[in-house]
């Protein structure tokens, strides 16, 4: 077993561990991430071999790079002692290769002169190869972590070296593709197009990979479809809004796939109301990755009449030429309001019915910071919540909830319901438009149970 250092991005901190755990499962890499700290972009792990290190981060978005640890200490002297003890047998292997040294510092920095002195202090490794600042065969890196302590007498903070590591660069992640998939450069986008970086992270957590089918029931302009297809998955999407799905002749979802040269990973899209999904019950999906509509830009609606009883006994409308109006290509079906909480429960039921065993559902859910609690997270007896990652804004947050489908036939500790619809007196849309000001009365919940 060898120790490695993962350099993490200082962004979306609560997603980092979840993404690495998902990639470890996908790549069949055994790793313990218990020491991950959201506040620190340095993570030390132990892996079987260098190949496992490369596999762990080769498609990561929130990791930057990984290094083989040659030594570690809380001072330069202890670092040199550890390097000599750990890796003196490795020095001859790199004696004649081209190389360069880098210095990376967290929460502090050193002048160039001090950095040069530290680099030269490693002269005992006796590398004779040429120094190349561009495209060297090996890169050796000194990684420093500083801490700040308060001097009570002088009433000011002092910077102190907390940890210093010396390692050999192994591999970089795919974080550089964020710029490639930036929405500002994408040919077809809309008002609801999802952030490219978070779409890619969601696809990693959803285990999108070659040979898998990923479905987005609220596809819009295809943000999650494109992200999943980048990682080799076959993508299919649907949406109640046919205009978003179709786009125009020169600007549509297919245009985006052509832009990124991943057309072979695109299955199809279709127009449907998610609550009346046409997929046959036996159709299985490997992952469902989506951002359900919150009802903020416009009220959340599904197909149906506000007053179904009124039309219960009425015959279909016929036009003057005898055609049924609802069969015309320009027919616009009626819609009725729908609660976001009910939509999430429908989504869980759909996932339980259509996901393969151990398949994943990754869905985004908005919450108000003022009153968020575990009661807001939907549950289902066949779906296990494995992560709850949060992206915080000023007064509200959106959470990426990841569920895993229990193997069929496995008994669950939850009571065996088929569908639970949670109706809150105040929806997220209402809180959003009142500016998340404190409500007069405490929020209460009404529970209704319905069978499919």
Automatic annotation (TrEMBL):
It is an enzyme of class 2 (transferase). It is found in: Cytoplasm. Keywords: Cytoplasm, Methyltransferase, RNA-binding, S-adenosyl-L-methionine, Transferase, tRNA processing, tRNA-binding. Residues 3-175 form the tRNA (guanine(10)-N(2))-methyltransferase TRMT11 N-terminal domain. This is tRNA (guanine(10)-N(2))-methyltransferase. GO terms for cellular component: cytoplasm; tRNA (m2G10) methyltransferase complex. It comes from the Eukaryota. The keyword Cytoplasm applies. Belongs to the class I-like SAM-binding methyltransferase superfamily. TRM11 methyltransferase family. Residues 185-299 form the Ribosomal RNA large subunit methyltransferase K/L-like methyltransferase domain. Its EC number is 2.1.1.214. GO terms for biological process: tRNA methylation. The keyword tRNA-binding applies. Gene3D superfamilies: Vaccinia Virus protein VP39 (3.40.50.150). InterPro entries: DNA_methylase_N6_adenine_CS, RlmKL-like_Mtase, SAM-dependent_MTases_sf, TRMT11, TRMT11_N. It holds the Pfam family UPF0020. GO terms for molecular function: tRNA (guanine(10)-N2)-methyltransferase activity; tRNA binding.
């Amino acid at each position: 077993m060898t120790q490695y250092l993962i350099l993490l991005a200082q962004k979306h901190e609560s997603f980092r561990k979840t993404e690495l755990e998902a990639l470890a499962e996908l790549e069949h890499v055994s790793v313990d991430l218990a020491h991950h700290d959201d506040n620190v972009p340095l993570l030390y792990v132990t892996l079987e071999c260098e190949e496992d290190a490369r596999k762990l981060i080769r498609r990561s978005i929130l990791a930057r790079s990984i290094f083989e640890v040659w030594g570690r200490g809380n001072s330069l002297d202890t670092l040199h002692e550890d390097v000599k003890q750990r890796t003196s047998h490795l020095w001859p292997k790199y004696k004649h290769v081209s190389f360069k040294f880098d210095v990376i510092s967290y929460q502090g920095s050193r002048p160039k002169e001090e950095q040069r002195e530290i680099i030269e202090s490693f002269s005992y490794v006796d590398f004779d190869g040429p120094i190349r600042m561009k495209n060297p065969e090996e890169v050796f890196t000194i990684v420093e972590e500083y801490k700040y302590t308060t001097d009570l007498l002088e009433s000011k903070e002092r910077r102190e070296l907390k940890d210093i590591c010396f390692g050999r660069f192994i591999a970089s992640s795919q974080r550089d593709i964020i710029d490639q998939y930036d929405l500002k450069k994408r040919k077809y986008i809309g008002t609801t197009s999802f952030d490219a970086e978070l779409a890619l992270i969601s696809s990693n957590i959803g285990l999108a990979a070659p040979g898998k089918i990923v479905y987005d029931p609220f596809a819009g302009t295809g943000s999650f479809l494109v992200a999943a297809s980048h990682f080799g998955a076959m993508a299919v999407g649907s949406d109640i809004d046919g205009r978003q799905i179709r786009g125009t002749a020169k600007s549509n979802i297919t245009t985006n796939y052509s832009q990124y040269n991943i057309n072979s990973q695109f299955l199809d899209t279709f127009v449907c109301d998610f609550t009346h999904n046409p997929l046959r019950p036996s159709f299985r999906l490997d992952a469902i990755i989506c951002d359900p509509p919150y009802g903020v830009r416009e009220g959340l609606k599904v197909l149906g009449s506000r007053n179904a009883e009124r039309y219960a006994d009425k015959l279909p409308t016929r036009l003057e030429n005898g055609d049924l109006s609802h069969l015309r290509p320009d027919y616009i079906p009626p819609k009725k309001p729908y609660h976001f909480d009910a939509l999430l429960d429908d989504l869980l039921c759909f996932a339980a019915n259509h996901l393969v065993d151990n398949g994943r559902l990754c869905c985004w859910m908005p919450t108000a910071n003022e009153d968020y609690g575990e009661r807001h997270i939907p549950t289902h007896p066949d779906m296990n919540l494995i992560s709850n990652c949060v992206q915080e804004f000023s007064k509200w947050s959106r959470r990426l909830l990841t569920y895993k489908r229990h193997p069929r036939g496995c008994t669950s500790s939850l009571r065996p319901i088929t569908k639970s619809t949670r109706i809150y007196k105040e929806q997220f849309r209402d809180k959003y438009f009142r500016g998340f000001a404190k409500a007069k009365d405490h929020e209460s919940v009404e529970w209704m149970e319905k069978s499919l």
